[in-house]
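TL;DR need structure tokens for one chain.
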Amino acid sequence: MSSLFPGLTDDPTGTPTGVPHERPALRFGERSLTYAELASSAGALADRIAGAGAGRVAVWATPTLETAVGVVAALLAGVPAVPLNPKSGESELGHILKDSSPALVLATPGDELPAAFGSLERVDIDERPSAAPGTKEPAPAPAPSPDPSPETPALIVYTSGTTGPPKGAVIPRRAIATTLDALADAWQWTSEDVLVHGLPLFHVHGLILGILGPLRRGGSVRHLGRFGTEGVTRELNDGATMLFGVPTMYHRIAEALPGDPELAGALGRARLLVSGSAALPVHDHERITAATGQRVVERYGMTETLMNTSVRADGEPRAGTVGVPLPGVELRLVEEDGAPITAYDSETVGEIQVRGPNLFTEYLNRPDATAAAFTADGWFRTGDMAVRDPDGYVRIVGRKATDLIKSGGYKIGAGEIENALLEHAGVREAAVTGEPDADLGERIVAWIVPADPQSPPDADELANHVAGRLAPHKRPRVVRYLDALPRNDMGKIMKRALPSG
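>> reply
TL;DR here they are.
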């Protein structure tokens, strides 16, 4: 396998192979590094990591240039990095540190680390490349070490821990390379692309896709630090070609578009708009397309699998779907008893299982959880429920644990009801769950944030709205009103945090 970052591999003259050394690699606000500067600064830190004999390194993953340099350095050293969410509570952080046992923590100078780090050795990341003797040019990157095996762990990314303490998914180098190359094929992603995003850097979307993706292609990334429509407009008007975001971000864009023609024009000039980490409501798809002429591309992945499917740049944009399996990914839907669904009819709901080189290796220190996650013949049980069109397009309807509702003999996905509710003018946000019902087994409950809190749509109106768009058995039987829905750092609705009763 080739290096994860061909653009940071030096030839004998010190010039990054295949990528002009002066090309911008990373930009965070006013601070940036060219490929030559990144090769020099990350290479020097990689030497220090390797010299320390570290088995793993933690990275305090703030949305900064230093975090990107630190992760790249660990990967160049062949040492797995453990990106840490700076918003983690003391208990969660303590669990992750104990479980992963890093030899040191990489951090941005000046950052105050929580007490959970104890006496763990800290290394401040210096993003400034050292100068070559007698010049102002960046010193050549250190000679690269032999490329590690494709199975060598690259990252250990901890899951959200919704059903227990977070588990560390061990992601090998081959999974990162496979996913990024498959996305390059699906999205026609090249070294000429300039990506803009404002995603956190402690998870797959923001770090692997949003930072390592452009570096593997030899392109550029501009990180906003914090998402805002003004930053999106500025960067797309200044030559950025791609935007990555989550549904919360695209919802804010859709809300802003009617009063912001400059934003609409900037989005209209983008080559590709990508949404992920949760389903983008169809209503927001339609509003963005109407204002900009652009279709948002959705893709589907998980911490354990990286990316599984995507709407292709050269394929049919179909709102509400996550496209087709990426090259190299096998995907199937199965019944509750594990029997594969063989005829796809756009209606039959099944659990997604995947198999391919994009998968993680194991849950760190959890052989029991690893074994339970796979079938005997190597399919990973995602826990996500979906339907599939006859031509292969996949539409996610929710999580098996929280979004599959069994009511009146029907299997119903919460996602399609949420989309229908969001089409109602009186609904700003919506979540759908099931609760026990003596007659139906489960009844459908709609949690609504009204567009006008002083005049919310009543329950019968919403039930009839859903029944008219989907089917009568999919209408909500109970409606509850909230000021806001509980969400995590990625904007996903935390249904387990909804009030009981």
